[in-house]
Amino acid sequence: MKICAICQKGSHLGGVRKLLRGHYNPTTTKRVYPNLQWVRLVNSHKRVKACAKCIKALAKKTK
Length: 63
Fold this sequence. Notes:
One of its GO terms (molecular function) is structural constituent of ribosome. This protein is of the alpha+beta class. The protein is 17% helix and 38% strand.
């Protein structure tokens, strides 16, 4: 699953509205995934997938 184990951040639909001859073309949508990476938690020796924002926050807490 592409969900952060800490903050439960998941994918969402994002798109670009292209202007074509005075009309917007709403067909350009794609799924945007979070930046998930494997990280080892400090208190438990378990590896989980966490987003980059949570990894930065964990690094600040351990200092």
